Amino acid sequence: MGEPLLELRSATVDYRTSNGLVPAVRGVDLRIDAGQTVGLAGESGCGKSTLAMSVLRLLPRNAVLGGEVLLGGENVTDMTWGRLRAVRWAEASVVFQGAMHALNPVLRVGDQIAEPIRLHGKGSDVERRVGELLEQVGLPARRAKAYPHELSGGQRQRVMIAMALACSPGLIIADEPTTALDVMVQAQVLDLLKHLVDELDIGLLMISHDLSVLASTCQRLAVMYAGRIVEQGPAVEVLRNPAHPYTKALAAAFPTIGDASSRLAPRGLAGDPPDPSDLPSGCPFHPRCPSAMPECSGTDVLLRPVAEARTSACLLEVHL
Ligand SMILES: Nc1ncnc2c1ncn2[C@@H]1O[C@H](COP(=O)(O)OP(=O)(O)OP(=O)(O)O)[C@@H](O)[C@H]1O
Ligand SMILES: [Mg+2]
Questions:
Q1: Residue 296 lies in a domain
Q2: Banded model confidence at residue 267, pLDDT cuts 50, 70, 90
Q3: pTM score > 0.85 for this model?
Q4: Higher pLDDT, 254 or 299
Q5: 96 Cβ inside 6 Å of ligand 1
Q6: Ligand 1 atom at minimum distance from 60 CA
């Protein structure tokens, strides 16, 4: 196997705050190979966006990144700002949560898509390339002249995807790309992403709190809780037969797309996720875990293999 597109080795991110350090990402190992799609799931605050932003060092100033984040084998923590500018858009790009805020309201969308292309000096006929990109994401090329407010939420998210594709990166990181959209448009944008990563053979790290969204888009799934990955494996198997009690609860809490009978109140996920600056001892999920045992509060549980290509961080015996 060649060099992974992205490899995180014991990656950590701490936020410096007036109340001390907030450990948002606490030792994550994750690997994405060329053309591979990986979904990252977990409740609000578990560190998904922080992890995503660490890949291109887009973290806020009060963040401290530790461990290794290797992009095409190169550690982003060692990159100069010049080198970072060169790899952003060209090797990896990010589609953020909520396109409304990510687009500049006073610039035509075509000019915004053209920006990374010009920045990287790619292609002489930028206008043609912008039209091509718009068509690739299912918008007519003439929409290049539109301002963001003239487009619907779904169309704006397509513009964001076009922008992410502009310099033909090997990896796209999509942070909740469909959360702000209604269910129909969400399905269309997901289909588009899936189709594009297949067609262009791009690696994808897709973030969502909704496991069913990830399972329909990604080959592998990583489930995050309190800054750590607690389960990882092939997406369909993890969703069908979760090993970790947290994955089970998360799968039960979000209804399957299109399954009206499961559209009830969240089940199996009582209580709130822990405050990262005040984590419970042992397994951080133990206070909410329906299967907790006395030893769970005293043991720091690490990921271990539970089946072929599957790992889980739980003391329970699992039979998959
Ligand atoms: N700039 C910051 N300064 C201090 N703490 C922060 C900062 N940004 C995020 N945090 C904290 O880090 C933790 C992880 O936040 P993050 O945004 O990565 O979570 P998330 O999983 O993406 O959540 P969501 O699903 O709501 O987007 C949270 O506890 C959050 O409060
Ligand atoms: Mg987030």
A1: no
A2: low
A3: yes
A4: 299
A5: no
A6: 1
- Say how far apart CA 169 and CA 167 lie, in whole Å: 6
- Among all bound ligands, the one having the nearest atom to the CA of 41 is 1
Domain of residue 81 covers: 6-255
Quote the CA–CA distance of 146 and 160 in Å, as a whole number: 14
CATH of residue 74's domain is: 3.40.50.300
Give residues with Cβ within 8 angstroms of 290, minimum separation 6.
245, 249, 268
pLDDT at 218 exceeding the cut of 60:
yes
pLDDT in tens, 65-101: 999 999 999 999 999 999 999 999 999 999 987 656 7
Per-residue exposure over 99-111, b if at least 16 CB sit within 10 Å of its own CB, e if not: beebbeeeebbbe
The verdict on residue 23 lying in a domain is yes
In a domain, 308, yes or no: no
The residue whose CA is least distant from atom 11 of ligand 1 is: 24
Give the integer Cα–Cα distance in Å for 3 and 170.
12
- Determine the Cα–Cα distance for residues 22 and 270; give it in Å rounded to an integer: 24
Counted residue by residue, the chain has a size of 320
Q: Is residue 274 domain-resident?
A: no
